[in-house]
Write a structure and sequence with these properties.
By secondary structure, the protein is of the alpha/beta class. It has two domains: about 140 residues, Rossmann fold, CATH 3.40.50; about 160 residues, Dihydrodipicolinate Reductase, domain 2 (2-Layer Sandwich), CATH 3.30.360. About 30% of the residues lie in helices and about 25% in strands. It is built from ten helices and 15 strands. Strands 7, 8, 9, 10, 11, 12, 13, 14 and 15 form a nine-stranded mixed beta sheet that branches. A six-stranded parallel beta sheet has the order 3-2-1-4-5-6, sandwiched between helices. The protein is globular, with a radius of gyration of 21 Å. The chain starts with 7 loop residues before the first strand and ends in a 16-residue tail after the last helix. The protein binds NADP nicotinamide-adenine-dinucleotide phosphate.
Length: about 350
């Protein structure tokens, strides 16, 4: 494996909302350099480059051909990720791909296959898994000091008000509360409890057949259970809680939490009732970079400098496991893609 030395040249593929946020955090990461940006429209790439730097290209093809680009950040709607990643791999570039990497597990397997075939690095841009608070909490929970996790609850949703052609509402671009929001509670539960053994789901669909509200229950190792919701019609608390046999962990904005709080419960003794103890704050040892996206950028750089082709923080198998769960959830709630593609399990192998 060739190791990368010097600054890592980033190419940003697309100029939408998350591309801007990502470029903001990229500027804060030492050893990372915005080399270029590519858009379907040159004017859009030029405006982006004027704000964030880098060479502007009026096509994705030109972006991936730039020799100064080592790694491409794919920031298009989910339905386009596989084609965009393929373009980057074929040009010899590494890829950080926005979540969810694809619409279903079959396409994600194809993306992983392409990365291996071209011997390139691939990571889902699951910033939550790279976040210092989440990493610190996961470590504590796994060490057993917080007790045995029994119930996890996580909810993510906000009301989407956008024109019908917006990616959040257009079925052809992968609009789905599950794919956009549900991927976070499912990933959070996976990180804290390990892979799900089973998931049960119910959902409400729009007239276009988009899942707009989803409720899921999952069963994990050692009998731990999770309840998770995703919505594009309502304002959820964006909170998560983990109840253990020693107390309770609580997080605000659980997909990028500033801190987690563990409140131990002082056991009943001598006729006294059990009562909450002193809350303990859990946060990472490193400060949060920018809006929280800097850590996935650091992780890509760390992996590439070490010659890795996947990240231990967001391994391919984790991305695939979550997509398989989402395939299962979609099947249970009756969502099929607007593109007419049948659910993965119904496709010929
Ligand atoms: N990690 C996070 O916190 C986070 C947050 C938001 C979104 N995301 C993910 O990032 C991806 C993009 O989301 P976004 O909110 O940035 O979307 P967006 O604002 O709609 O931007 C998407 C961009 O993709 C490009 N594009 C190419 N073909 C397109 C088409 N047919 N229709 C629309 N856009 C097209 C466009 O850029 P050009 O015109 O420049 O080519 C467009 O600006 C999604 O997969 C989403 O799940 C992640």
């Amino acid at each position: 494996m060739t190791e990368l030395t010097g600054d890592l040249g980033w190419g940003i593929l697309a100029t939408g909302k998350i591309a801007h946020t990502f470029a903001h955090d990229l500027a804060l990461v030492p050893g990372a350099r915005l080399a270029a940006v590519g858009s379907r429209r040159l004017a859009s790439a030029e405006a982006f480059a004027a704000e964030h730097g880098g060479t502007a290209y009026g096509s994705y093809e030109e972006l991936v051909a730039d020799p100064g680009v080592d790694v491409v950040y794919v920031a298009t709607p989910h339905a386009l990720h596989l084609d965009n990643a393929r373009l980057a791999f074929e040009a010899g570039k590494h890829v950080l791909c926005e979540k969810p990497v694809t619409l279903d597990a079959a396409d994600a397997e194809e993306m992983v296959r392409l990365a291996r075939h071209h011997d390139r690095f691939l990571m889902e841009a699951m910033w939550t898994a790279c976040h210092p608070t989440i990493r610190a909490l996961r470590e504590r929970l796994r060490s057993g000091v917080l007790g045995r996790p029994r119930h996890l609850h996580a909810e993510l949703g906000f009301r989407v008000e956008a024109p019908p052609e917006d990616r959040m509402l257009d079925p052809a671009l992968g609009a789905s509360a599950l794919l956009d929001m549900g991927v976070y509670p499912l990933t959070f539960a996976h990180l804290m409890l390990g892979p799900a053994l089973e998931v049960h789901a119910t959902g409400d669909l729009s007239r276009d057949g988009i899942d707009v509200d989803i409720s899921m229950t999952g069963r994990y190792a050692d009998g731990a259970l999770a309840t998770m919701t995703a919505s594009i019609t309502s304002w959820s608390s964006r909170r998560a809680e983990i109840a253990t046999d020693l107390g309770r962990v609580e997080l605000d904005d659980f997909h990028h939490p500033a801190r987690a709080t563990f409140t131990p419960v002082v056991p009943a003794e001598g006729g006294r009732a059990a009562e909450p103890g002193e809350p303990v704050e859990i946060s990472g040892t490193e400060p949060v970079i920018g809006r929280g996206y800097g850590h996935e950028i650091v992780e890509v750089g760390r992996c590439l400098r070490a010659g890795l082709r996947e990240s231990p923080l967001v391994p391919h198998e984790q991305t695939l496991a979550i997509l398989r769960l989402m395939d299962d959830v979609r099947r249970q709630v009756g969502v099929t893609f607007a593109t007419g593609a049948p659910p993965a399990e119904a496709r010929p192998v």
